[in-house]
Design goal:
By secondary structure, this protein is of the alpha+beta class. It is built from 9 helices and 12 strands. Helix 8 links the parallel strand 11 and strand 12. The structure holds coenzyme A.
């Protein structure tokens, strides 16, 4: 895919936008909605209707060269008509459209953005950080899932959470066997870290990660936790990158971590690999052995 740009909709785009919406309705959304609803929507999204809604909403298009390959619109605090040409699904066009309109909404003072999602797109919006608020059933349009997202930007700081904050994060992750230490001891544990990065949305702590290290040879990355409501938005990756950059800066040769089995692929993206079978990681279980 050559470079994709996002620009304001112009009335000359109405045929192309109508065509790509109609094609998605007929070939993609039709898997989740009854035929009469799809037909009603296909009739509705004529080029004339697109022109009408573009007059009352901020409508944008994604283009590759001259070709319109996606569209989305914003009306106050609500996103509508997010559609990507089927040939470009999964190529990041939807994400770019959403991010563009989120920034537009932020610039006009919107704090929480909503979207009435199709059944088809719920997982896509969840990936973009939207959470299900309620479900609306109507005879005209079938099921709409109302989702919303807090638009505050994530900031990263070298902040050491308090013992209580650490406990809240651990509990949100459902980890066992740590909180029993109590908040004072856990705060001591955090203070003995070599490097900590915390993530905030506004003034709310939403995640952390830390490195325990001698600062020269060995480093262990641990306690990378993002609260469940904020997972899937790239915050874990943001924290991990900062931890790894610090290790790289100090040229630490041994940087290790323990991944849950289903998280191994996440860490592989950052250059980790499983330890060789000839040198497996081990942990101490039988403490009466000494
Ligand atoms: C939903 C839609 C707009 C997504 O656009 P897209 O360009 O295909 O999505 P992107 O490539 O930007 O995807 C961004 C991420 O969401 C994921 N994603 C996209 N569609 C998904 C789906 N249906 N289920 C689960 N994840 C999905 C992608 O895998 C990607 O994840 P990654 O960050 O791990 O790579 C597009 O598929 C579409 O037009 N669907 C039909 C029309 C529709 O239902 N529109 C919504 C009307 S409310």
């Amino acid at each position: 895919m050559s470079s994709v740009a996002i620009r304001d909709f112009g009335t000359h785009d109405s045929e192309a936008v109508s065509a790509l919406i109609r094609e998605n309705l007929l070939k993609v959304n039709s898997r989740d909605y009854p035929e009469q609803i799809i037909n009603r929507m296909v009739n509705l999204f004529s080029p004339e209707y697109i022109k009408l809604i573009s007059a009352v909403r901020k409508m944008v298009v994604a283009v590759e060269g001259e070709n319109v390959i996606g569209t989305a619109s914003l009306d106050g605090d609500t996103l509508y008509t997010v559609f990507v040409d089927m040939n470009y699904h999964g190529a990041g066009v939807g994400r770019s459209l959403i991010q563009y309109l989120e920034q537009t909404a932020r610039n006009s003072g919107v704090h929480v953005l909503q979207v009435p999602s199709s059944l088809t797109a719920e997982h896509f919006y969840a990936k973009m950080g939207y959470r299900r608020v309620r479900v609306i059933e109507s005879e005209e349009f079938g099921t709409d899932i109302i989702m919303s997202k807090d638009l505050k930007l994530v900031t990263y700081r070298e902040y050491t959470p308090t013992g209580e904050e650490f406990i809240r994060l651990i509990e949100s992750a459902g980890w066992q066997g740590i909180t029993e230490k109590g908040s004072r001891q856990l705060e001591t544990a955090l203070c003995n870290s070599w490097f900590i990065v915390s993530a905030f949305k506004g003034d709310q702590l939403v995640g952390m990660g830390r490195v325990i290290s001698d600062g020269v040879v060995q480093a262990l990355i641990c306690d990378l936790i993002i609260v469940p409501d904020e997972q899937g938005e790239g915050i874990g990756a943001g924290i991990l990158k900062k931890l790894l950059r610090k290790c790289k800066e100090r040229e630490i040769p041994m940087v290790q971590l323990f991944a849950a089995a289903h998280k191994a692929d996440f860490y592989k993206k950052f250059g980790f690999e499983e330890r060789p079978a000839a040198a497996p990681g081990m942990r101490w279980i039988s403490r009466d052995s000494v």
